[in-house]
Amino acid sequence: MTYVLKIGDAMNEKLPASEDDDTLALKELLLDIDCLKPLDEWADQFNLFDVLGIARAEIRHSNVLGWLLDPNDNHGLGDAVIRGFLTHIAAAGNDNVDIFDALLLDCHDFTVRREWRSIDILAVSASERYVICIENKIGAGEHDDQLNRYRRIVESQYPQCRRVFIYLSPNGADPSDPEHWCPMSYRDVLDIIETAKAKARLSPDVELLIDNYIETIRRGVVGDERLERICADIYAKHRRALDLIYEHRPDRASSLAAIILAWAEQRDSAGQIILDRSKCNKTYARFTTQGMTAALPATNEPSSAWGTRNHYFYEVVNSEGESFKSWICLNRKGLDSEFMNRFESLFRHAASRPKRTNWAYHVPFSTADCVVDEEMPEDEVFRELDKQLEKLMRFEARIAPLIIEDAKQEGISAR
């Protein structure tokens, strides 16, 4: 599959650098290739999480943390990690955790659940009537009022238990509900795991896995200061060449863009949509339909901001490979009053009007975001895209006939 690479989009075009300048920058980097040698210390080091490509995968971090938090699992750390979590929260002065409870609690019967009711990690002690709920955030932040929702679920399912809610993020970001959720950083997690490891005698395979995980946190989540300094020096010296390589890397956004384009090509072949491949890039896959074009017909000349005769596009919007959504986008550039009447009809029936009188683009309908896990298979992305297309088509089936009827009543001829 050929990746669709973003040179710029219709709303924010960038002027490309000249090919000669780019070539010169790459040559200078290659001639100074020894500048990369300081990175060998990290590049030559084996790390299982890098091999599996899950160093930044939130769900995989939760799996490893769940394993380490379970006092009865086979890591050899006993209850040191789960007790470390409780002690840290209590020492931080959180009112929901009594420091004596944390120090005297018998942690050995805690059981750990993963993704129970969509909660990342839930640790429950039946004998101690104690529940620890952890929401783990590495990339995306909170969404859909999830902290309040998870808290209500835990409170309703464990009404007789003492409850601790932990919001875990790389830098200990404040949760939206600070009254109930305690912030915790991955630096704190790093300290807890390293302290627990120093006091335990581990088997070689477990020690290797935990060391790999510690290095993954240090390098990929909280940051390795020395590595960051070396990289900053190299980047300052070869900024243009490295930007060029970064722009054309097969990254997560490119991978998702390739899947979205493959889906769009299938739907185009099936006659469901009319894909405009020339207007697709890493961020947008753009298409039209016969139904909406009947309501918003093409102009005689390509006068839109996209350089097309059509002044609308359905767009699948790829948000850096982390999520996608679909919407219909309108552009008014080059339109006469007759065509603007059709847009006015759409605004009225869709109950969505631009906030500014001199608007350039307007999105009258959009689906919700679909969050993409790195391990989400292609067929699942296809299914989610089909659901979004179905919502777009329901919008079209409701709105397009009304626009056409209004145009007939106003005596606007079809183009």
Could you tell me the mean pLDDT?
82
Number of strand segments: 11
> Helical percent range?
40-55%
Radius of gyration, taken over Cα atoms and rounded to an integer in Å? 27 Å
Give a topology summary.
Elements: H1 19-31, H2 40-43, H3 48-51, H4 58-69, H5 80-91, H6 99-104, E1 111-116, E2 119-125, E3 130-136, H7 146-157, E4 162-169, E5 181-185, H8 186-198, H9 204-222, H10 225-237, H11 239-247, H12 252-269, E6 274-275, E7 284-288, H13 290-295, E8 312-319, E9 323-331, H14 337-350, E10 361-366, E11 370-371, H15 378-409
Parallel strand pairs: 3-4, 4-5
Antiparallel strand pairs: 1-2, 2-3, 6-7, 7-8, 8-9, 9-10, 9-11
Helix pairs in contact: 1-11, 5-8, 8-9, 14-15
Notes on the protein architecture:
Strands 6, 7, 8, 9, 10 and 11 form a six-stranded antiparallel β-sheet that branches. Strands 1-2-3-4-5 form a five-stranded mixed β-sheet, with helices on both faces. The protein has 415 residues and is an alpha+beta fold. The chain is built from 15 helices and eleven strands. The model is unreliable at 1-17 (pLDDT under 50).
